[in-house]
Amino acid sequence: FRGYLVQGLSMLFKNGIIPVIVTSLLFGLVHMTNPEVEKHGWGIMLPYYSLFGLFLGLLTLLDEGLELALGIHFANNFTSGLLITSPNNVLKTDAIFIAQTEDPASELLAWLVLAAIAFIIFWLRYRWKNFNLILK
User: Fold this and answer.
1) Alpha-carbon span 40 to 97, nearest angstrom
2) What's the predicted TM-score (pTM) here?
């Protein structure tokens, strides 16, 4: 989603954020087949997945590469598959911990806070100055 599709959409849209938003929504829609959606509904899960896609898309634009986004996506799947899982998780594994209760709204809020902190850390670490790629 953040590779060829963003590049292709960038040829159609001159604004850098539009391809990222479009691919983020597509990322969210692809994940709507996950069993979590059946349990919790589209209303919370589509924003959850799409915002994760938006976060990864913005990192890809600012970092000018897929590596950081791919690493974060891998870390997310690794964590939800091997460290902590839930009965409704798409990854059916023998994780170390099993969450007995799920509250996707609270999880989304916690994720937004962690994403903001991670973004600030990456911004400070990599000294991104190319915000014009998003705003142009």
Assistant:
1) 21
2) 0.89
CA distance 102 to 11: 41
Query: pLDDT band for position 6 (50/70/90)?
Result: confident
What's phi and psi for 64, nearest 5 deg? 55, 40
Look at residue 88 in the predicted model and tell me its pLDDT.
86
The alpha carbon of residue 6 and the mean position of all alpha carbons in its chain are separated, in whole angstroms, by: 15
Nearest 5°: the CA angle 1, 37, 51 is 40
Burial of 48 (0-12, 13-18, 19+ CB in 10 A): buried
Count of all residues that appear for the chain in the document:
136
Q: What is the distance between the alpha carbons of residues 33 and 28, in angstroms, rounded to a whole number?
A: 10
Q: For residues 109 and 89, what is the distance between their CA atoms, to the nearest angstrom?
A: 19
Are the CB atoms for 45 and 104 separated by under 8 Å?
yes
Phi first, then psi, for residue 84 (nearest 5°) are: -140, 135
